[in-house]
């Protein structure tokens, strides 16, 4: 009777893993503190760099792209600030979750933060890939029909969608639970009931965002290569396009390497029905959190201004980049010219044959 009444009085977030937990090694506490401090500092520097660049830029498409970058920096910074403060506080004070949060409000808030700040970078990466795809393949429609307010609206919509998904466990689709070693909360990764549905929603949405980014970025790269191989007067504009695509590709590569192991692990666990292996969950989660540290350095380092400071003797313009691979451009031009000549010769021969034909008999 006492055991059943205790089970009925146990809040949902403590029904699987209930405190108190075993003491955490000092190495984990140091890792969390250094990780949070480094990530916050990196994102703060990146935000200052982006703000200065945004004020100086006069390129319309680049200003759109920098709005997305600003949203990504703010998302990474707030994610580290919210989740890192809770984890570091637990390592410092070793508080008891049951005493501090008897109704699971703090645990649910941290679980929602983990889902929200996990999905936002992936979805923002997909939105940036869509924006660059339209800007490169349909530049006239992009520049004439897309004001800056619409770009801000797209960032807000990504935040809204991720926030609605993070709220699903509070409506009964999934549930947030305390996770071992007791310093964090996350949704329950299980193959049963509504937990199965929410686990698939989280993992498949993340994987779909990465797939959309990869597909659209590939098409944009091919289009840029075709454009850069030809002669054009808009070299400065294309220099900005190449710079943005390099940054976007690096963001995509970092997000794929950091998040794919965790997303695949979640989908594989719930689809196979195997028990959750906590050591792999912690390992892949640490891989995913590296995304918030590596992202800002893409904006800080991968800029033409920074590259010119690092190597001032090199010319980082499009013409110099294409001159490093002249054979590719020459090959494309020779192939295009030869195909045009053969086509013109065939048409000329056909016209001669038609002129030599006798007139038709009455």
UniProtKB/TrEMBL annotation:
GO cellular-component term (any): plasma membrane
Alphabetical list of Pfam families matching this protein: 7tm_1 (PF00001)
UniProt keyword annotations, A-Z: Cell membrane, Disulfide bond, G-protein coupled receptor, Glycoprotein, Membrane, Phosphoprotein, Receptor, Transducer, Transmembrane, Transmembrane helix
TM regions (residue ranges): 29-51, 63-89, 109-130, 151-176, 196-225, 246-271, 283-302
UniProt-listed InterPro entries: GPCR_Rhodpsn, GPCR_Rhodpsn_7TM, Prostanoid_rcpt, Thbox_rcpt
Signal peptide (residue range): none
Main location as per UniProt: membrane
Gene3D superfamilies registered for this protein in UniProt: Rhodopsin 7-helix transmembrane proteins
Subcellular location: Cell membrane
Any one GO molecular function term: thromboxane receptor activity
PANTHER family reported for this sequence: G-PROTEIN COUPLED RECEPTOR FAMILY 1 MEMBER, THROMBOXANE A2 RECEPTOR
This protein's name: Thromboxane A2 receptor
UniProt source species: Champsocephalus gunnari (Mackerel icefish)
